[in-house]
Design a protein that fits this description.
The complex is a heterodimer. Chain A is of the alpha+beta class. Chain A contains three helices and seven strands. Chain A has a domain at 53-111: Alpha-Beta Plaits, CATH 3.30.70. Chain A has helices at residues 67-71, 97-101, 117-120, and strands at 2-6, 17-22, 36-39, 53-57, 77-79, 85-87, 107-111. In chain A, the strands form three sheets. Chain A has a three-stranded antiparallel sheet with strand order 1-2-3, with no helix packed on it. A two-stranded antiparallel ribbon of chain A has the order 4-7. Chain A has a two-stranded antiparallel sheet with strand order 5-6. In chain A, a hairpin with a 5-residue loop joins strand 5 (77-79) and strand 6. The longest helix of chain A has 5 residues, at 67-71. The radius of gyration of chain A is 18 Å and the shape is elongated. Chain B is of the alpha/beta class. In chain B, the strands form three sheets. A seven-stranded mixed sheet of chain B has the order 3-2-4-5-7-6-13, with helices on both faces. The chains are: A alpha+beta, B alpha/beta. At the A-B interface, strand 1 and strand 3 of A face strand 9 and helix 9 of B. Strand 3 (36-39) of chain A pairs antiparallel with strand 9 of chain B.
């Protein structure tokens, strides 16, 4: 079986990490001396579930200035070639920094469950 | 090997050269200051070949050592008293990251009241940080124990950082003879450090200090406890090898002086244990069957050695140069606890004194042993703890 020593992105936007340790037989004898982990995605599950408010980009107003992309502490905003931003709602924790820094104020923080998610995502 | 005259601090700086330390990060504090000062001088002369990082605090010093050790470098620092206390967070970090850093702590009383002289309360308060602790009684022992400490800390069965304590001023600023080993000689004993676990390497990135959930955290702590306990047997091996190679031996976890046939023992840490020999000789001349046991290794606590020592003895005086406020002498408490599960029941009296650098000389040690004998013979245990020379 496999023992997972997990990490998360709760602090300062670090990369999601996971360490797989083979345990045969099961138990601490095969654990590493101390916890460390190798870069990977999604080890602690989808941290987007922690969100209370969803950032919603008004693409009609968006000037593709990339400020939100630059400031996002979780690096969950990706850009198309032309600079159009997209938010990864699987991992966005809803901190609202993008909405704060947006020069055109075209990102709204909308209480989760009150918007039509199909439309925007 | 060549014999030199030097203070303990200057000798510690030489131990850093002999052990081929790769990174030193240190911040000055009396009485440890002359350790990094000498290393800086040796660095300027090209004798010390590692990095010397000047930092803005002891907290930074230990974290710089943590960074260095994380890359697989052999790291060292020195401090005293409040400097050691400022390192506290980093001390826990170093041990839990299993980084074999060696720290020379020059024991100094903690302020306030401001005092630069020796007490052991600085290092005793770091008992539970996960650092192996030694207390030494001579310049020669300090130098060689630092070299041994690297081998012990870096052993895969141990992998815990190690603190070597020396009494401030009594050793740090007192010139005495010691035997210096060239790095080429020490190479026979101490191989380059190669981390058997995670290492900070840009080619193969890992994260450390990451979250560990309740289902695994406890096991990492158990592993630290195991590593620390292993240090006892590993140290016995290391000492045997060191003795064979260089003819140096300082007595194991507990150095005993005339303990075998003694009825009464005084235990102590640091230089008092050296002073005690003269007191033992004088009391022996007067017909008292006394001995001195100098506890060199405080963590892991040498429980079995304590039990062997206490077997058949009438009484033990444990002398602590520190106090656990509200519960007496820390080592006395450990000795009592070590014996509770056995049927070994000598009278154990706790003596506290020598704080703030107050001298403990031969007459003091005789007075303590005679007080112990008086209580044992009268059958009156007396107070659980006695503050020696309390004015």
């Amino acid at each position: 079986m496999s023992l997972r020593v997990r990490s998360c992105r709760a602090h300062s936007g670090c990369v999601l990490v996971v360490n797989e340790v083979n345990t045969e037989p099961e138990g601490r004898a095969n654990m590493p001396k101390t916890s460390y982990s190798k870069p990977s995605v999604g080890a602690t599950g989808k941290t987007g579930s922690w969100r209370t408010f969803d950032p919603v980009i008004n693409y009609k107003e968006c000037s593709k200035c990339r400020t939100c992309w630059l400031y996002c502490p979780e690096a969950v905003i990706t850009l198309e070639d032309d600079g159009t931003p997209h938010i990864d709602y699987d991992y966005c924790k809803g901190c609202g920094i993008c909405a704060q820094v947006c020069p055109r104020k075209c990102i709204d923080m909308v209480r989760k469950g009150t918007r039509d998610e199909e439309d925007e995502e | 090997m060549k014999t030199e005259l030097m203070s303990a601090n200057y000798a510690a700086a030489r131990a850093v050269v002999s052990a081929r330390v790769e990174v030193v990060a240190a911040y000055p504090i009396t009485p440890a200051t002359t350790v990094p000062e000498q290393i800086a001088l040796l660095s300027e002369k090209g004798i010390y070949k590692g990095e010397f990082i000047r930092v803005e605090s002891e907290h930074s010093a230990m974290f710089a050592c943590i960074g260095a050790s994380s890359t697989g470098a052999r790291a060292f620092t020195a401090t005293s008293s409040n400097g050691l206390l400022l390192m506290d967070e980093a001390l826990h970090w170093a041990s839990a990251a299993r980084l074999p850093i060696v720290l020379a702590n020059i024991n100094r009383s903690v302020s306030p009241s401001w005092n630069i002289h020796v007490s052991h309360d600085d290092s005793m308060s770091k008992r539970d940080t996960g650092w192996i602790q030694f207390y030494v009684s001579s310049v020669d022992e300090f130098y060689h124990t630092i070299i041994q400490a690297f081998k012990l800390a870096e052993d895969e069965r141990v992998l815990m950082p190690t603190m070597v304590n020396a009494d401030g001023f009594v050793l740090s600023h007192t010139v005495s003879r010691y035997d210096y080993l060239e790095p080429e000689e020490v190479d026979k004993f101490l191989q380059p450090y190669s981390p058997p676990h995670w290492v900070m390497d840009p080619e193969n990135p890992v994260a450390h200090g990451n979250i560990v959930f309740p289902e695994h955290y406890q096991e990492f702590r158990y592993s630290m406890h195991e590593g620390t306990k292993n240090a006892l047997d590993v140290y016995l091996e290391i000492e045997a090898e060191y003795k064979k190679l260089f003819g140096k031996y300082f007595g194991g976890p507990i150095e005993c002086y005339k303990c075998d046939d003694a009825d009464y023992i005084m235990t102590s840490q640091g230089t008092i244990g050296a002073e005690a020999r003269d007191a033992i000789d004088q009391l022996r001349k007067d017909g008292y069957k006394v001995g001195s046991a100098r506890i060199r290794m405080y963590r892991p606590f040498p429980i079995d050695h304590i039990r062997d020592l206490a077997k058949g003895k009438k009484a033990i005086a444990s002398f602590d140069r520190s106090v656990s406020y509200g519960f007496g002498g820390p080592v006395a408490n450990d000795i009592r606890a070590s014996l509770y599960a056995t049927d070994i029941r000598p009278l154990i009296k706790s003596y506290i004194g020598g704080l703030g650098g107050r001298d403990i000389t031969v007459p003091d040690i005789k007075e303590i042993l005679l007080d112990l004998i008086k209580h044992e013979e009268s059958g009156e245990a007396g107070p659980e703890e006695t503050w020696h020379d309390l004015r």
